[in-house]
Specification:
single chain, 279 residues, alpha/beta, Protocatechuate 4,5-dioxygenase, Chain B, eight-stranded mixed β-sheet, two-stranded antiparallel ribbon, 35% helix, globular
C-alpha cells in the first residue's frame, strides 16, 4: 500500500524564490538561509519520495475573490506555473498524479470533508518555493505532486483542529491506495509575520519555536490554538501555520524529528523548516 513516510514543514516566502531565480543566493543576506536548508535538501535527495502532497495557500492566482474554496485538491496531469505579476517563476511545470488525487478526493468527501476538485489550476510561490528549497532548480521535478490548497487568505480560515483532522483523514486515504508508494506531505507558509498595518514586520520567535516544539511533542495542543491567537501573537499571516497541522495529522501519533531550522529575517518573515519521519 501507499504510505506517508514523512512530513516537511517550511515557509514559502516569495522573496526566497526571487533570490534563487535572480542569482542572489550568495549575497550575505541570503547565505545563512540557504545554508540552513542544505540538510533538508540532502535528506530529500536520500529519501527519494514518489509523491508529495503539498499543502499550501494560493495567493489569488488559481482562485480570485469571486470563489474561495476552503480546501481544494488539484487533480490535473500537469500544473503550469502562475504569473504573479512579474512573469512565471523559471521552474518546470509540476507533474500531478490525477489517479491518486481523485482517490483522495473521494475518500475525504466520504469522510465528510468538503473538497473542491480542481482539474485545472496554476501554482504560485506558495507551492513552488517549498519545492525549490527541497529540490533546487532541476530541469524536471523528481516527484509527482498533489496540490492541496487551503484558504488562509479570506476570513474565515479553517481552524487548526479542522486541519489536523484533515491530515488524519489524508493518512487513511493514502493507506487505502493499492500501490507501493512512498509519500511525503508538506505543510507550508508562516512562520510569524505580518505584511501590513501598524504591526507590519512583527516576528515572535518564542511563539514560532514553541510551535515547532509542539509539532514533535504535543500536536494536540497546537490543534487547540484558536485563529485569533495566531493573529494576536504572531501576526495576521501566521494563520498559515494551520497548514502545518494538516501535515502533522497525516503522520500519525509517533514521529521522529530529523531536522529543524529557524531563521530571521527573510524579507519581513520568520522562516522555519522541520522534517518529521513517521515511526
Amino acid at each position: 500500500m501507499a504510505k506517508i513516510i514523512a512530513g516537511v514543514g517550511t515557509s514559502h516566502t516569495p522573496a526566497i524564490g526571487a533570490a534563487v531565480d535572480n542569482g542572489r543566493t550568495d549575497q550575505p543576506y541570503w547565505v545563512p538561509l540557504f545554508k540552513g536548508y542544505e540538510p533538508s535538501k540532502k535528506w530529500m535527495a536520500e529519501t527519494k519520495p514518489d509523491v508529495a502532497i503539498i499543502v499550501y495557500n494560493d495567493h489569488v492566482n488559481a482562485f480570485d475573490f469571486k470563489i474561495i474554496p476552503t480546501f481544494a485538491i488539484g487533480c490535473a496531469d500537469v500544473f503550469p506555473i502562475a504569473d504573479e505579476g512579474w512573469g512565471p517563476r523559471p521552474v518546470p511545470p509540476v507533474k500531478g498524479y490525477p489517479e491518486l488525487a481523485s482517490h483522495l478526493v473521494q475518500s475525504l468527501v466520504l469522510d465528510e470533508f468538503d473538497i473542491t476538485i480542481c482539474n485545472e489550476m496554476q501554482l504560485d510561490h506558495g507551492l513552488t518555493v517549498p519545492m525549490t528549497l527541497m529540490w533546487g532548480q532541476p530541469q524536471e521535478w523528481p516527484v509527482r505532486v498533489i496540490p492541496l490548497a487551503v484558504n488562509v487568505i479570506q476570513y474565515p480560515a479553517p481552524t487548526g483542529n479542522r486541519c489536523y483532522n484533515l491530515g488524519k483523514a489524508i493518512k487513511k486515504a493514502v493507506e487505502s491506495w493499492d500501490e507501493d508508494l512512498r509519500v511525503v506531505i508538506f505543510g507550508t507558509g508562516g512562520m510569524s509575520h505580518q505584511i501590513q498595518g501598524p504591526r507590519a514586520g512583527l516576528i515572535n520567535k518564542e511563539f514560532d519555536e514553541a510551535f515547532l516544539d509542539g509539532l514533535t511533542q504535543d500536536p494536540e495542543r497546537l490543534a487547540k490554538i484558536p485563529p485569533i491567537e495566531y493573529m494576536r501573537e504572531a501576526g495576521a499571516e501566521a494563520i498559515e501555520l494551520v497548514m502545518w497541522l494538516v501535515m502533522r495529522g497525516a503522520l500519525g501519533d509517533n514521529v521522529r524529528e530529523v531536522y529543524r531550522f529557524y531563521h530571521v529575517p527573510a524579507s519581513s518573515t520568520a522562516v522555519g523548516n522541520i522534517i518529521l519521519e513517521a515511526v
